[in-house]
Design goal:
Layout lengths: L9 E3 L2 E3 L3 E3 L14 H9 L5 E7 L17 H17 L3 E6 L17 E2 L8 E4 L2 E4 L4 E2 L5 H17 L4 E6 L4 H6 L14 H19 L4 E5 L13 H12 L6 E5 L2 H4 L3 H8 L4 E4 L8 H10 L4 E4 L1 H5 L3 H7 L33
Helix pairs in contact: 1-2, 3-5, 5-6, 6-8
Bound molecules: flavin mononucleotide.
The site of flavin mononucleotide has 22 residues, from strand 4 and helix 10.
Length: 364
């Protein structure tokens, strides 16, 4: 067997998995009108051999939508769409389906929020532009959330998490990485609050920890994961001292028996190994993922799992292009190459559900 460490069964707490290969969250912009449909169900069912299948970033509120045709989970129609996805995944494999809750915060855009001004910890505009149906557009200056609105935002995550479980998913992954809303609370340049939700490490980590606690309370900690990318400068984030921020955050997370913590290795931005930091401070299941700049090769990931650097590995682009990735890795088979030109976009199944498997599959 190729990559034997990736195929050691895994058991810890509520989690029993046949192997260690996880699908990383991938935005694909194919949930037409924000509602997952049949083509999305097919795509996820094709990938149901993942140990854990983490979905595309999904907005828990309309105001948190940053891109065209990203799925939502804040109304009944979207919930029914996700139920269709969950049923298809269940009938195709054993993957634990985790819906990633991604509130874009300041990098949402009025083109997608029904004209509403995006909300954020502080009224600090992100540098850069986003694609809209009218062409590339500058990010807008967001409106700073009032202190008494924070409970409402937390409730939006809680409501989406309840809907995820009601739809038949195992649980949710809170997206606190890559410069979206929760990461905006953690970073000094995007959080200039003086109301107890900013200023210092305790303040900047507070909203994230309160949200984790509220969601865990609502659906059970064993149904909640969280994704972190300490120091990652994506979406114009500039963290001054990621080590201090994430030491505190990880210590706070360790008080909850979460399903997992999922960390991107952002060493090239943070200046230290962010996976090693999490391993030291987070006592539970740790999922590791490459940074954009340093793609793990599979042999390297296998060795890191063997060394105990992390427990499970999340592959993004490889899973995108290889619906049967675990089988291919186990056999040491050749991998399909991902086609970047079809990563994002409402073009139905092309570059989405048409990547070939080694053995033709029923889900296709
Ligand atoms: C097309 C595409 C979409 C992505 N969408 C998301 C997303 O919705 N949420 C997220 O946390 N990361 C997202 N990422 C980051 C991936 O989860 C992953 O961290 C990155 O691709 C590096 O891992 P890889 O080398 O295995 O692909 C995306 C990456 C790609 C290529």
């Amino acid at each position: 067997m190729a990559h034997p460490n990736l195929f050691e069964p895994y058991e810890r707490g509520a989690l029993t998995l046949p192997h260690r290969v996880v699908m990383a969250p991938l935005t694909r912009n194919r949930a037409v009108g924000t509602v997952p449909g049949e083509v999305n169900a097919t795509y996820y069912a094709q990938r149901a051999s993942a140990a854990i299948l983490i979905t595309e970033g999904t907005q828990p509120a309309a105001i948190g939508q940053g891109y065209l045709d990203t799925a939502g989970l804040h109304n009944d129609e979207q919930q029914a769409g996700w139920a269709q996805v969950a049923a298809a995944v269940r009938s195709a494999g054993d993957a634990k389906l985790m819906i990633q809750l991604m509130h874009a915060g300041r990098v949402a855009h009025p083109a997608y929020t029904g004209g509403e001004t995006p909300v954020a910890p502080s009224a600090v505009r992100a540098e850069g532009q986003v694609w809209t149906p009218d062409g590339m557009a500058d990010y807008v200056t967001p409106r700073a959330l009032e202190t008494d609105e924070l409970a409402t935002v937390r409730e939006q995550y809680v409501d989406a998490a309840r809907r995820a479980v009601a739809a038949g998913a195992h649980g949710v992954e809170l997206h606190a990485a890559n410069g979206y809303l929760l990461h905006q609370f953690l970073s000094e340049n995007t959080n200039q609050r003086t109301d107890g939700y900013g200023t210092d490490v305790a303040g900047r980590t507070r909203f994230v920890l309160e949200t984790v606690a509220a969601v865990a309370d609502a659906i059970g900690a064993e149904r909640v994961g969280i994704r972190l990318s300490p120091g990652h400068r994506f979406n114009d984030i500039a963290e001054e001292n990621p080590r201090a921020t994430y030491d505190a955050l990880l210590r706070g997370l360790a008080e909850h028996d979460l399903l997992y913590v999922h960390v991107m290795e952002t060493r090239n931005h943070a200046g230290y190994s962010t996976i090693a930091q999490a391993r030291e401070l987070w006592p539970g299941t740790l999922i590791g993922n490459a940074s954009f700049a340093e793609e793990f090769d599979v042999a390297g990931a296998d060795a890191l799992v063997g060394d105990g650097a992390f427990d499970l590995v999340a592959f993004g682009r490889r899973f995108l292009a290889n619906p049967d990735l675990p089988a291919r890795l186990r056999e040491g088979a050749e991998l399909n190459e991902p086609d970047q030109s079809t990563f994002y976009g409402a073009i139905g199944g092309r570059g989405y559900t048409d990547y070939p498997t080694l053995v033709p599959s029923a889900a296709s």
